[in-house]
Amino acid sequence: MTAKILSNAGKLLEEEYDFILKGGIVLDKLGQAPNPAPWWISEQNWDNITELDKVSGFHEIIDSFEQHYKAWNGWYATTFPEQEDLVGEWNDKLTDFQKICVLRSLRPDRISFCLTQFIITKLGPRYVDPPVLDLKATFDE
After folding, report:
1. pTM of this prediction?
2. Which of the residues 45, 98, 128, 137 has an alpha carbon 20 to 30 A from that of 86?
3. Residues 6+ apart with CB under 8 A from 74
4. SS3 content of the chain, % helix, strand, coil (to 5)
5. How many whole angstroms separate alpha carbon 95 and alpha carbon 127?
6. Where is the signal peptide (predicted)?
7. What's the distance, CA 56 to chain centroid?
8. pLDDT, position 67
9. Domains in the chain: boundaries
10. pLDDT band (50, 70, 90) for residue 45
């Protein structure tokens, strides 16, 4: 529902939303850029980053990982990376939803919490809080 509301308002691109749902699926591993830090970037995470690089607004993110892999590792290793600034110009360059795409690429374990916070920030807590069940009113009906 949140995606539809933001999409209708022109605040969410379909390719970014698709990336959040599916992640990066690399069909041509031979044409994929080499992983600059395989000791901490898993194959799946690198697939996500290389496919994210193809989404508009993320071009050259691969270059950032190649040049600043130690800084990216520092961001990745934090307990709550969604609360930290992204590396280099990426923090100022990306929208809040685009930052979630980066988080999805490297730390999918944090995505549920991050999306909940995003929805609260953009639409309010009523979109994530479960409704209170009034048993008396239900019984009276």
Report:
1. 0.85
2. 128
3. none
4. 60, 0, 40
5. 21
6. none
7. 14
8. 96
9. 15-29+36-140
10. very high
Distance CA 77, CA 91 (A): 17
Instruction: Quote the pLDDT of residue 2.
Output: 76
Amino acid letter, 120: I
pLDDT score, position 94: 96
The answer to whether 12 touches 118, Cβ cutoff 8 Å, is no
Residue 114 neighbours by CB distance under 10 Å:
19
Given this model, what pLDDT does residue 24 score? 87
CA-closest candidate to residue 90, choices 134, 52, 141, 44: 52
Q: Which tokens hold the place of 104?
A: 């999805």
pLDDT category of residue 125 using cuts at 50, 70 and 90: confident
Q: Show the tokens assigned to 108.
A: 């999918």
Taking the C-alpha atoms of residue 101 and residue 113, their distance in angstroms, rounded to an integer, is 13
